[in-house]
Amino acid sequence: MSVAAVLRLKARYLHIPIKLSAEKAMVILRRADNAALVTYFEAAIGEDHDYDFLACWDGKDQVGTDLELEIRGGAVEWQTWPQSNEKLPACPAAVAVPARPRWHFTCERGWLNDPNGLFYYQGVYHLFFQHSPFTLQWTNRNMCWGHAVSRDLLHWQELAPAIVPDETGLCWSGGALLDHQNATGLQTDEHPPILLFYTAAGTFAPQPVPFTQAMAYSCDGGWTFRKYQGNPVIGPLQQESRDPKVVYYPPGRFWVMVLFIAWRGENAQFAWFRSDDLLNWHLLQELEVEKNGECPDFFTLTDSAGELKWVFMTASGTYQIGQFDGRGFQPETPWRSLRADWGQNGLYAVQTWSNAPAGRCILIGWLRSEPYPGAAFSQQMTLPLELALQDDADRGYCLTARPVAEFQDLPGVGSTDFQPGLSADSYHVWLNTSRTADFTLCIRSGKLQFSARKQTLLWGDDEFLLPPDSSLELEIVVDTMSWEVFLDGGRQLLAVSQLAIDCDRAVGLTADPDDVRWFRVKALV
Predict the structure, then answer these.
(1) 479 Cβ contact list (under 8 Å, min separation 6)
(2) Helix/strand/coil for 78
(3) SS (H, E, C) 308-363
(4) How many CB atoms lie within 10 A of CB 274?
(5) Which of 44, 108, 206, 255 has an alpha carbon 20 to 30 Å from 24's alpha carbon atom?
(6) Residues 188, 123, 152, 104: what is their CA dihedral angle, to the nearest 10 degrees?
(7) Is the CB of residue 387 less than 8 Å from the CB of residue 303?
(8) Quick count: other Cβ atoms within 10 Å of Cβ 250?
(9) Distance CA 435, CA 460 (A)
(10) What is residue 74's predicted lDDT score, i.e. its pLDDT?
């Protein structure tokens, strides 16, 4: 079934009632005067009196125009969709909305996953993310790049989506780069062009086309973006080749793109490309990785002797450290992982900020979560994490990740008692115990246990076997909907979602005091 009509956009925001149990329909909007495609999305659309949340489409560039509305796949009462110049409440008035995470980014409404295009410029951290404004579940039918900004990595302001689907496809994951040299020739004022490299997922366009790699750019410091007219910058390769990450290689004065090419059974194929102008690219190297794929990152860190090392990382936080000579990456370590093997949820699609100040290397990931009952949003990011390169005689090179200094400096109410009597929505905890005795740490509805007999940390049915050379020194961050446990000085991270809507907010530690080297709790205020 298909519906065709004309919709007059009288205000900036068009609100679409979403009923998650309803039949899905494809909605396509074109300008009535020239048939130019404006946007398209798939959604389970409800009625004005029966919906789970109101999705919000920002039509700021189309106010006062007539739009051709095409709906494929079901009868929809589009005539009653509210329009307004201010966003309407996301949930019906009768719905009890759960508390959002305090220190973990969530989008205002809809779904988020992979962090994309991270960059820092003029005191502002920019976070882009895979965003489906019209559903609370993952879908490959809607993705645009959501956009949020922060000056401290903890308090975020969400802006309008930066890049949205067009005839070339949905906007899938990628990276960002500041073109300080104006190699693209796109600069128009004092700001260097800020480039977003993304995958145009053409299979899901109204008229399907192949996947390509594309670019959008900003000339105003990163606040608005337009798509490069010469797209694609890399044409079709393998089906669903995706996730471009671009970095500068100073010795050669050129740029390098790392791209996920395809799955080869359980293995993943990646490729490195080179460009002298950020617009034209040619192949340098291909590499096959066992079992770990998608969302590559490629960045540098300096060791204690001042030697520069390159880090190649995949979506799951699995990485190798080595050298890059402009022709290819040569690993010097075995594969290691920041993410501990811990259930199905947790850290994924990790990426580092480009142009971070003072030489910092800051990483964030998608903290995969269960649905949040009654919420108009789904999923969250991890805390921003500071990466460092460790080199020790026994382990060789490895990475450590800990909450950024901005989080460490948050004010709070502290206690070192086993039963501190604190009650808060979020906590920062430090615990160091012997590996010869059990303990149980309870915070909100979560319970973390250690079994000395099995030498495992337990969370529900999930177990993590401690490496033989690992200390039981834990740094733990508990937010309203998550636990992040930094183990062994930050060499591994156990990240889990927890739904704690109505629960005891206190902290309790059960352990033999003789086995506890230190225990400190800070209730964040």
Answers:
(1) 101, 102, 103, 104, 425, 426
(2) helix
(3) EEEEEECCCCEEEEEEECCCCEEECCCCEECECCCCCCEEEEEEECECCHHHCCEE
(4) 18
(5) 108
(6) 10
(7) no
(8) 9
(9) 20
(10) 76
Q: Which of 114, 297, 425, 479 is catalytic?
A: 114
In this structure, what DSSP letter does residue 408 have?
Answer: H
78/169 Cα distance (integer angstroms): 24
Rounded to whole angstroms, how far apart are CA atoms 130 and 364? 13
Whole-angstrom distance, CA of residue 369 vs CA of residue 184: 39
- Enumerate residues 6+ apart whose C-beta is below 8 A from 440: 447, 448, 449, 450, 508, 509, 510, 511
How many Cβ atoms from other residues are within 10 Å of residue 155's Cβ?
12
d(CA 483, CA 333): 30
Q: List the one residue out of 198, 173, 153 whose CA is nearest residue 356.
A: 153
pLDDT at residue 51, rounded to an integer: 94
The reported pLDDT for the residue numbered 503 is 65
Instruction: For tokens 């800051």, name the residue.
Output: 362
The neighbour count for residue 68, using CB atoms within 10 Å, is 18
Q: What b/e readout covers 32-67, taking b as 16+ CB neighbours within 10 angstroms?
A: eeeeebbbbbbbbbbeeeebbbbbbbbbeebeeeeb
* CA dihedral for 299, 111, 7, 2, sign (positive or negative): positive
Helix (H, G, I), strand (E, B) or coil at 436: coil
DSSP letter string, 13-30: EEEEEE-TTSPEEEEEEE
* pTM of the shown model: 0.96
pLDDT of amino acid 500 = 62
Residue 323: CB atoms within 10 Å: 13
pLDDT at 359: 94
Query: What is the pLDDT, as a whole number, of residue 324?
Result: 98
Cβ atoms of 400 and 391 closer than 8 Å: no
Q: How far apart are CA 12 and CA 58, in angstroms?
A: 6
Q: Is there a contact between 34 and 85 (Cβ–Cβ < 8 Å)? A: no
DSSP per-residue string spanning 438-504: -EEEEETTEEEEEETTTTEEEETTEEEEPPTT---EEEEEEETTEEEEEETTTTEEEEEE---SSS-
List, in sequence order, every residue forming a beta bridge with 195; answer none if it has no partner: 177, 217
Are residues 350 and 328 in contact, defined by beta-carbon separation less than 8 angstroms? Answer: no
Spatial separation of the C-alpha atoms in residues 345 and 367, rounded to whole Å? 7
**Residue ranges for the chain with pLDDT beneath 50:** none
Amino acid symbol at 76: V
Of the candidates 372, 380, 337, the residue with the CA atom closest to the CA atom of residue 477: 380
φ, ψ of residue 513 in degrees (nearest 5):
-55, -30
Strand partners, 495: 484
Q: How far apart are CA 51 and CA 18, in angstroms?
A: 5
114 is catalytic: yes
421 token code pair: 């009597």
State both tokens at 437: 């005795």
